[in-house]
Amino acid sequence: MPAGAGSNRAMVPFLANMKAVCIRAPHAATVARMALRIAPTLACILVVVFTPAHFARHEFPVFRVVLDPGHGGRSMRPISLYGDRYDSISGAYLDIYKEGAALYGIHEHVIMYAIARHAERMLAHCAPGGNFAAFRAILARYTDVEPQRITIETSLSRPDSRNESAVRGRSDPNEQFRLFDFPGTNGTLREGRLSVINARRPHLVVSLHCATDGPPKYRGLNPVIVAPYGMLYEGLRYLKGERQTPNFFYRSAYRDWFSESSARPDIDWFIKDVSVYFTGYPPAGYPSKGSRFKGYRYNMVSWAYRDPAGWEFRAWHHPDRTPYAIKYRGFNASNAFWERERSVYERHRRDGGPEGYGGDNHYASAEIIRYVLYSLYVDAGRRSHPDERLTRPYISIWSVPLHVNAINAFVELGYLRIPHHRHMLSSRQLEIAEGIAVGVYSLLAGVTPRSSNLAQPPRGKRIDFGKYSISPSKNYFDCAAHD
Ligand SMILES: [Zn+2]
Question: Is the domain of 36 the same as that of 140?
Answer without folding.
Answer: no
